[in-house]
Write a structure and sequence with these properties.
Four copies of one chain form a homotetramer.
Chain A (H helix, E strand, L loop, with lengths): L3 H17 L19 H27 L5 H15 L1 H10 L4 H25 L8 H6 L3 H16 L4 H16 L3 H6 L1
Helix pairs in contact in A: 1-2, 1-3, 2-4, 2-8, 3-5, 4-5, 5-7, 5-8, 7-8
Family (chains A, B, C, D): Belongs to the TMEM175 family.
Subcellular location (chains A, B, C, D): Membrane
Catalytic activity (chains A, B, C, D): K(+)(in) = K(+)(out)
Chain lengths: 189, 189, 189, 189
């Protein structure tokens, strides 16, 4: 089975997710500069999510560059990833509209954690159908970053119950570690 | 006529349908965990529809892998399928917001049934323009699953008048039979 | 310049237009069958627009099958067409929510007429960069249908001032003449 | 790394941005011609933004025609551009709903300026990975238009504090200079 339509469908869904999040930035009633102030937490929440969804697209792009073939299981592992990402606009809006309070911040981290797990499953579904000497197998290696992200997110979700600030810092830390493009795949390809 | 733009357009429309459904998950006013509770039926309704629309994309993908050529009739059979799928966000929201009560559940099944019929028509429009020994003809066979789904949906829609629970179980049963990827096409290709 | 990205961008925009129209079908408050009744004019308006936008995608698809090259002018003629099509969700909603009363019906026809003119301009921009013996030139011929549509829409918009019914019938008539796929291009290619 | 998925993702995001802006054209309550009057500033704001986003797609299209390869940095420079463009629906709506008053007009120009800077950065990220004799390097030249746009937008944003009219005229002037397709790239390719 060819990979091009999976890429196209994922591009479509991720493009929509990243763009409809901005619809939560509701136009303020006033026309003064300070009317934008109340939007600040929502805007910050949006920037964080834009970077995170952008990261997933980037990693998906890098990953599928190395993919040689897919099967029915891969289609579902991919749809499963898109499901969790599709909940990002909701958790982004809830967190932004509630000024980064406890439960919205925890839910936000939970969605990120589930997305991380779904990405991990996608990678694990792709590996068995690729030989050990393929670009994909070499590029993924032991997938340290993937495991690291899921673990940090789990920790952040628990810590969030006591400290929202630490949870948010951990979300930013994981995003930062991914902003460095995946050298492994780029080198191999 | 080439099939690539029909695939691209269908990918686009289905990607949008599957993603805008989540807009119905309106952000709750409170910021506590129990504020999410009232969203539970809408979230469940969303999960069911995400799986169903995901299934249609999956099957569409499998089907068009085997397609060798199309014509004007196929374009319209495909647009007809997209029409019924485009009503999914509406029926999903109505069912979720009304806690799975009678008429919304019946309408939901009706839209699924019409989508099933539209998919069936699409397949029947593709068959005459493909030889009997092509991958498509071999892969489709007697299309047991397609006929089965439409019949179960029709039954569910009628039963829904007396028992919402049985109707919902039937919707889940059909989805479950499709979650197993279409071995027929995968084997032939 | 290659045509594939113009196709992809147009597919994207048209897919979004055809899908967001359904967002106007607002979920009714009640959960009874008769609660759907008040949605009937909006639903009818949606069906008419779904067919019309579907037609434009279909014709665009047929047209670009025959296109061999494009230039900067074609890009803008195409964007101009997408502009008028992008107003379809607005005119569809205004017409549906006002039960097909005079001015909304006239505006609806005006947007259709402008889309028709924009399509006509797009065709005229493509012709000079294609030789007389190319598939495109042969396929377009004297473009009777294109001219016919624009004229009927203009007439319908004027008549709409006195009779909404006749205007609506004319909209349906034009759509019906296009539902027959463009044999000219299909035969040549 | 191949460029086709960056094109596809950008096409998707830009297609959504250009189309969801129209959702701000809220259907008026009345059904008379004069009920449309109050929508006039929003409609004008929409037209200006449609042209501007259309321009970015056009330029992106021209630019990537000449691109031969990309890397991780290009992916992020491109995502950065999409971020600023994604704020266009917000600034368009704020400006339209407030009848082109001071702060909304200034914000609108600010988003345009940041988009211009992001486009400039994208071009600068592409140049080092292309040889001096490639189509891209020849086509870009000293990129007069790009620098000119950013400078005029900065001036317009400052002037906007005293004169909204001059700021708006400058926005239109920049758009007009871009409406002429980029001859440089078209000639080289």
């Amino acid at each position: 089975m060819k990979k091009n339509r999976v890429e196209a469908f994922s591009d479509g869904v991720i493009a929509i997710i990243i763009t409809i999040m901005v619809l939560e930035l509701k136009v303020p009633h006033g026309n003064q500069l300070h009317d934008l102030k109340s939007l600040l937490p929502i805007a910050l929440s949006y920037v964080l999510s834009f970077v995170n969804v952008g990261l997933y697209w980037n990693n998906h792009h890098h990953l599928f560059q190395a993919v040689e073939k897919i099967n029915g299981k891969v289609l579902w592992a991919n749809t499963h990833l898109l499901f969790w990402l599709s909940l990002m606009p909701f958790s982004t809006a809830w967190m932004g509209e509630n000024d980064f309070t406890k439960w919205p911040v925890i839910l936000y981290g939970f969605i990120l954690m589930m997305s991380g797990i779904a990405y991990f499953i996608l990678v694990r579904t792709l590996l068995p159908i690729h030989q050990k000497d393929t670009a994909l197998a070499k590029a993924i290696g032991n997938d340290f970053k993937g495991k690291f992200s899921v673990i940090v997110y789990s920790v952040a979700v628990i810590i969030g119950y006591w400290s929202v600030t630490i949870a948010l810092i951990l979300y930013v830390v994981v995003a930062a570690t991914w902003l460095i493009p995946d050298k492994r795949i780029e080198e191999v390809i």
